[in-house]
């Protein structure tokens, strides 16, 4: 009985330590976390509001990552802002006859192009960060940035498999951000992981409904 009591106490102590560490995040990081969670939730729900919220969140994270030496991720946020503007327009008018863009599967050419881009970016930018900056974890930083860019492009095109890539990227980001003492953001990426799974199921359901409605529309 006492062993069970001490085991429960250890779990509670670990949770308390985590919360104490997380609460030490800066106000800027916490606002970035909240807006970041909101934009991913809205994207999983196929809401156009994810784009303006994403632009705000990414702008805040430019400052957060600059302060912690994650320069590749800082650059990534700038790319996300540009892609969000592109995606906002594309979701509204990217379908046939300038209609709303439907959810579709990723094309083979997009997989090949994305893989080549990710490999080249990871090797090239990782080398530059390692030898010319004080960046933390340069190659991991470059790899997660490349994977995020490919995933974001697929999301802008409403490709279902963008969520697969986000799941992989989120799993890698959690320990990296924890290592850099960005505890609230590390916890956010755990939530992102759950939202990516949710987004995949929601988008797959929407895609099947759209495909089932096609014969009726003809």
From TrEMBL:
On whether Transport is a keyword of this UniProt record, the answer is yes
* Residues passing through the membrane, by range: 47-66, 73-91, 111-129, 163-179, 185-201
Q: Which GO terms describe its cellular component?
A: plasma membrane
Localization, per the record, is:
Cell membrane
Which Gene Ontology terms cover its molecular function?
A: nicotinamide riboside transmembrane transporter activity
Membrane topology, record value: Multi-pass membrane protein
User: Hydrolase among the record's keywords?
Assistant: no
* Entry keyword set: Cell membrane, Membrane, Transmembrane, Transmembrane helix, Transport
What's the domain of life for this entry?
Answer: Bacteria
Family, as annotated: Belongs to the nicotinamide ribonucleoside (NR) uptake permease (TC 4.B.1) family.
Any idea what job this protein has?
Answer: Required for nicotinamide riboside transport across the inner membrane.
- Name of the protein described by the UniProt record: Nicotinamide riboside transporter PnuC
